[in-house]
Inverse folding.
């Protein structure tokens, strides 16, 4: 039955409260904010790749974001901050509920079809949140203990200086591995969370999500790898 | 046919809802491969009774895979290793001589253990009571094709209606989520014309009830679908989410509480 009856837009505080209290409502919030974040990482990854076009181009891109269209940048930052907070809050609350739903665990329960990616969403997400703080501290806020040579406005130089240290290369690659896992499950699950996926003979099969996840994480990883391998210097 | 086999069972024994449970080991001797899993347990229980001990309590009724009573976790898989089967339809030929089997009740806060392997699945009934029905007098049965229903819709509705309420989806879910059950009940009514008037309100109410019962939320692990003896697709969960979202946007708050029939 595809025909929907006449649309009655009837949200009110009571309904919105019920929506947020519901496990499905929280999951929808997690999915919608996740979509915002997926959109962001795709754009961020594409922007980063300009580092392979030389220092001038990259620093000009940084100047564009941090000076020329700073109002837009702030709007995006606020949207991202709200998204991350809601994403993590709903995840945290749903995780608490899930843990409470099985107070006595099985002596033996074998995962049958769930992916490694789906089982690492929670702790992987915690790691990604920590990564975001470190990453912002390093390249945006200029925390000296993370990058002593940080110099405002010299985006290209900051990146090269950071990734000349093997520790940061490894750290970022590990973070991208967790992002890969997070995207592998998240980009697949979100369409089901929002109820918009099509029925499928094998609903667990993932095709486009694998492409998106690989595209984003490989694209991001090229930057530290490029510096480590001496392509970018 | 091949000979009999000996199987070691590690069974969860719990005298009552509040009693402390523990695993106990039993050996099932001379098990025929043609036996069903429950028949094997029957034989073990006969021996226990003859030895003056308490038999292992487990739920069972039809023993033909349609009543949904015989749920238990066998070696970490709901209803055991065979796909699309209930425990009663699982046969001992799925195992081999010398196997060690861990048998546990469904584990969920909403499914308290009554005794040994028997759990209380009445939360499933309450989820249906919350909205898994059509509240109009349907009268006596009319001609089968009086209301035209497209075959794809009829088929899909029947796929959902195959749910026997065994609770394996909850048992297999790492979150102890009852989403697949609830979604199947929402889906099989929501796909038919008779279910349309209450479609979105039904989703809101049944989702609210499943939360109230203390089940976890869905994270789309997919384990439920694999454990389901009727092979119900997680696409129904997607459908439930869609109905829920639409309901949250478009349903007016209920005004009449008392005497509203």
């Amino acid at each position: 039955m595809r025909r929907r009856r006449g649309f009655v837009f009837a949200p009110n505080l009571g309904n919105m409260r019920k929506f947020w209290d519901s496990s499905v409502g929280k999951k929808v919030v997690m999915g919608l904010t996740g979509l915002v974040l997926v959109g962001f990482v795709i754009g961020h990854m594409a922007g980063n790749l300009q580092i392979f076009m030389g220092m001038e181009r990259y620093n000009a891109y940084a100047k564009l974001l941090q000076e020329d269209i700073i109002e837009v940048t702030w709007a995006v930052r606020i949207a991202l901050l709200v998204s991350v907070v809601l994403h993590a809050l709903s995840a945290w609350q749903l995780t608490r509920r899930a843990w409470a739903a099985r107070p006595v665990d099985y002596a033996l329960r074998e995962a049958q079809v769930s992916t490694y990616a789906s089982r690492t969403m929670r702790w992987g997400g915690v790691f990604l949140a920590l990564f975001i703080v470190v990453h912002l501290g390093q390249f945006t806020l200029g925390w000296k203990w993370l990058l002593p040579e940080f110099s405002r406005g010299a985006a290209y130089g900051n990146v090269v200086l950071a990734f000349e240290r093997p520790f940061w290369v490894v750290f970022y690659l590990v973070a991208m591995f967790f992002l890969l896992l997070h995207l592998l499950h998240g980009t697949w699950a979100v369409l089901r969370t929002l109820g918009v996926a099509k029925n499928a003979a094998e609903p667990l099969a993932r095709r486009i999500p694998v492409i998106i996840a690989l595209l984003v994480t490989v694209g991001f990883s090229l930057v530290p790898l490029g510096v480590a391998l001496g392509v970018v210097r | 046919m091949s000979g009999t086999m000996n199987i070691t069972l590690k069974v969860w024994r719990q005298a009552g809802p509040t009693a402390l449970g523990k695993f106990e080991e039993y050996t099932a001797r001379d098990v025929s491969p043609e036996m069903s899993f429950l028949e094997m347990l029957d034989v073990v229980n006969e021996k226990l009774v003859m030895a003056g001990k308490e038999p292992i309590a487990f739920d069972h009724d039809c023993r033909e895979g349609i009543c949904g009573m015989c749920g238990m976790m066998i070696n970490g898989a709901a209803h055991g290793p065979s796909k699309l089967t209930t425990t009663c339809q699982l046969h001992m030929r799925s195992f081999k001589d010398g196997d060690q089997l861990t048998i546990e009740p469904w584990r969920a806060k909403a499914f308290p253990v009554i005794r040994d392997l028997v759990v209380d699945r009445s939360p499933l009934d309450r989820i249906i009571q919350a909205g898994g029905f059509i509240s109009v007098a349907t009268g006596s049965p009319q001609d089968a094709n009086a209301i035209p229903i497209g075959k794809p819709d009829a088929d899909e509705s029947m796929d959902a209606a195959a749910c026997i309420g065994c609770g394996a989806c909850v048992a297999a879910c790492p979150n102890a989520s009852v989403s697949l059950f609830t979604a199947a009940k929402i889906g099989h009514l929501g796909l038919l014309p008779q279910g349309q008037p209450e479609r979105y309100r039904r989703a809101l109410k049944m989702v609210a009830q499943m939360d109230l019962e203390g089940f976890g939320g869905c994270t789309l692990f997919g384990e439920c679908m694999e454990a389901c003896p009727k092979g119900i697709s997680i696409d129904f969960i997607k459908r439930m989410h869609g109905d829920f979202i639409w309901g949250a946007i478009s349903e007016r708050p209920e005004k009449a509480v008392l005497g509203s029939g």
Notes: Residues 70-100 of chain A form the longest helix (31 residues).
